[in-house]
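Subgroup meeting minutes
Present: P.N., E.W., G.H.
Scribe: E.W.

1. P.N. recapped why we're keeping a running log of single-chain structure predictions: easier to compare across weeks, and new members can see raw inputs and outputs side by side.
2. G.H. added today's entry (276 aa).
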Amino acid sequence: MPSVVCLALTLFVYITLPYLRNVHGYYVMCYVACELMSFVCSTIKLIKLDDINSPLCIPFGYFLLFSCLTSFCWLNVICFDIYWTIRYNNSINRNTSISVRTIMYHIYCWGFSIIWVCTGYLFQHSKHETLLKLSPDFGHRSCWFKEHNGYGVLIFYLVPSCIMMTVNFILFLLTAIHFSRIKSELNEFQQTDDSKTEMFFVYKDRFVMTIKLFLVMGIPYLFKILQMIFRIHWIISDLLRPINRVHGVTIFIILVAKRKIILDLQNKFQRFNRSE
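Output recorded in log:
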């Protein structure tokens, strides 16, 4: 529940403050919205909707899978977009490039997640025994994956998320290398272009923020992989559950708990109260 509240507050802040609604902020809002969707589903599942006899059990499981995959996809988009923006910042058709990229990002995030979820659904309702073994198998023992180390969770959750996290890590390395080159150029030539220096620090702040989001997603995922490989069941109860409870709180701290944002919110609400 704290994660749901904090994610909703994060989304509210980004909607409220105009300067956060830039292109990068738009991608962050998509990511936070998908995270909020997945945590709302997880909370409902824990409270009352893990009844395998319910007609909503199987659709609910696939909707939860969809929301989890879209969260990973949008974090992947944020990582890629920072790299692309830093690497090709001087593009002549920059506005066109942003529009095209945004459309491609939507196709990637929603399209991939829909295709993957539909594939799992077709596998589960297939008459072929092999496909049934590889399916997510929602609605038999649980409305979610019945085993943490089964074929279904491996194919439809762990493998795609592992690929995206690996790509994110590679993008971080490439972005860090490019940042290092830009910084050395600014120092070497004693660059006096204030706008270029300012943009460098803006992109640097976004890069650091994205690394933090990556760690928030990556650390629980790493524990999940260790649990699956070594079958250490205490990892789930002693590590993963406490981390997941504060997942949304951590995202709120990373994105919103900043002096400038807090002061801007205070000023905005003070002006709103005066107008009334």
